[in-house]
C-alpha cells in the first residue's frame, strides 16, 4: 500500500540528524582531490600544447599559469596530490584490515591532513 504521508516527511532526514565525521570528510576529500588533480593536469597539458603551438598562444597560457590565480591553483593541486597520495596509503592500510577501529581511523585521518600540509610546504621549499 502506498505511503500517504510521504509528502510530509523530509527527503533526507539523515542530513539533519548526523554530523559529519572525520572519516567521512577525509574519504570525500580524497575523491575531491582526485578530481582536482585531473583539472590541474589538464591545465599543465594546455600549457605544453600552447608551448608547441605558437609563441603568442604560449604567452597567454603562461600568463594564466604564472599569475596569482595560476600559482594558487598549482599550490592547491600540489596539496591535493599529497593528500590524495596519503589518503590512498590510508586506504591501503585499511585494505589489510589494520586500523579499522574508530580512534585509529581518526588518527590516520589527522595524519593524512597534517602530513599533506607538511609535505606540501617541504615540496615548495625544495622547489
Care to describe what's here?
With 127 residues, this protein is an all-alpha fold. It has one domain (22-126): Fumarate reductase/succinate dehydrogenase, transmembrane subunit (3 helical TM bundles of succinate and fumarate reductases), CATH 1.20.1300.10. 79% of the residues lie in helices and 0% in strands. It has five helices and no strands. The chain has helices at 14-17, 22-53, 55-65, 68-95, 102-126. Helix 2 (22-53) crosses helix 4 (68-95) and helix 4 (68-95) packs antiparallel against helix 5. The longest helix is centred in the N-terminal third of the chain and has 32 residues, at 22-53. It is flat and about 65 Å long. The termini are far apart. The relative contact order is 0.11. The mean pLDDT is 89.
Task: Using the CA coordinates, give the radius of gyration.
Answer: 21 Å
Class from helix and strand fractions: mainly alpha
The biggest beta sheet reads: none
Fraction in beta strands = under 5%
CATH superfamily: Fumarate reductase/succinate dehydrogenase, transmembrane subunit
Topology, number of strands: 0
* Helix count, DSSP H or I runs of 4 or more residues: 5
Integer count of domains: 1
Pattern of helices and strands: HHHHH
